[in-house]
């Protein structure tokens, strides 16, 4: 490494450590990042594939800079997951021990004694979650400036996981509040493997200043992809089998295939919900029992106890026995579980970015390919098959995601959104931090130029304060100082306050005094019922409602608990690629014969229905507007129709419109009228919409602010209006019946 200028810039003790660890050379991402980070005078984003050395690219220069400071410096590493903090502690502790730099993990599982020691002498490397950082600002108030006075860097890991979310807006606010207390900017380093638009990511990291960027593309190693198709035949009497655990045939068949091809190696299996994690873990381990093979399949999702999750992570890390995790996105992020041979995706991937992140876990050993196995399930075609079944939507959407993945495209970060829910939380938190704030001070701190909520106007902020005052969330003393009201005080003093995101109230599942995890209360169960949890079957013996505890005992048989699913919002580019695939004729090399048959059947239906030229389809009591747009634009069109008294909702094929006696031509004329007029205001658009509360504190907002925050995150009115003005204008001027293909007869 003597020829490396970046290596020579590192502290000699770090150089010695790297030599002792057998490093032959720095990786490209480290060579490029070290000179940018080392001076400690700018913000930097480091984007590179999984296992490319991003963590070292940040910490080697950050630690070198820290060691050059006359006072004891502090690096604050912020992670979205406690498990990532535990991993980074293991990676950094040995290096930092040689440097005599202390490493402090800080989250809900860390003892109060360890936290007190850090507070007494805050130096070294602090590994913390946003929630714990929030609690620190709330509870330590005006001592924040002293606690963090020697901070040299903020390192934000898995940056993409924060962008566009309530938690991300919370993080922006926390960093801004700390910097305000310090009276200076602290350099921010963002780490990520999946960033669709670096400029948007830079805007998120620091909206008002330039951000240096290190973007190292994937080395382009060999990638092997196979998508297998499985068909659910109709049950007796014509009842559909899909999503019915008692009659489904495809999941056991998928489990048998995975059991055959994954045994003997480490892998990750991603179903699309916690329910499916439990189902497939149970099916796979049942096959282990039937063949008298050791257990190789382990569950991992957010409702399991940390002990069960750690057990899965430990099984993946050890090399004596093969292990495969059946998991949700909890193992999508950068938890160090070592290299896995392959990744399996059951069902449509939530997004292209998610698929890329998951696939990055495979092929990490030199010379080994990355392997992706996809599994799609379609219902059999018969006279009762609906339009989605005839078009084979799951197969085509999966193919579209893989097609875009191969072109190195993935969804850009969603940096927009009013995020009033998080503003409520940050306002309450800031009042706790300072012991009260004047309204003008609160606005300057949170909503002025360069503040995290700078898009919020003074009028909107004043309306928020009035609403919170009316509901006793806030109160004002005789001097005008904002304080917590009777209800607000209870909110802030509850342990759940520090999280910006909402979570269902859950019941603890306990067996013989040992906590197994939690089950959402919205999916209630009863004594005597058998459920799958943690990949095993349990008999519910007792439900203790006052203490929200379900007591279980080991049993055989059972059905997966009804966890909520977790599908992502679909981007317009994905839907447009689906349309392109329908219009193509050739085979896709990554589909097996059954999946290719599904695709051929979907293409045939697309051609038979002339969907290349048709915009509206008659589906009996409703019409389907085929837009090939993403969910945000489709929802905007549905809201435009609802504002005119027409029932409508966004769907997978476009917008589903209730006809209520209207002919298709009437609906088409209505849509053309909507497109020819000026776009309505948010209040007009959502005047008749209900159930808009999505985020944790949305219920505390006025109706006007609720409509505004919902629209900013869920509706793309510009894209919707552009589509209406162009597509429908072309359709009505170029093709009118009979050549338009529109019909009032059901398909």
Q: What's the gist of this structure?
A:
This protein has 747 residues and is of the alpha/beta class. It has 27 helices and 25 strands. It has five domains: 5-216, P-loop containing nucleotide triphosphate hydrolases (Rossmann fold), CATH 3.40.50; 223-406, Rossmann fold, CATH 3.40.50.300; 420-498, Arc Repressor Mutant, subunit A (Orthogonal Bundle), CATH 1.10.10; 506-554, no CATH class; 610-734, no CATH class.
Any idea what the CATH architecture of the largest domain is?
A: 3-Layer(aba) Sandwich
DSSP strand tally: 25
Unreliable stretches, pLDDT < 50, 5 or more residues? Answer: 562-566, 732-747
Please tell me the overall pLDDT.
86
Major sheet strand order: 3-4-2-5-6-1-7
Q: Please state the CA-atom Rg, rounded to the nearest Å.
A: 27 Å
What share of residues are in beta strands? Answer: 15-25%
Fill in the CATH topology of the largest domain: Rossmann fold
Biggest sheet layout: 7 strands, parallel
- The CATH superfamily of the largest domain bears the name P-loop containing nucleotide triphosphate hydrolases
Q: What global shape is seen?
A: globular
CATH hierarchy, class of the largest domain:
Alpha Beta
Q: How many structural domains are formed by the residues?
A: 5
Determine the structural class based on helices, strands and strand pairing: alpha/beta
Distance separating the two termini: 69 Å
Q: How many helices does DSSP assign?
A: 27
Helical fraction: 40-55%
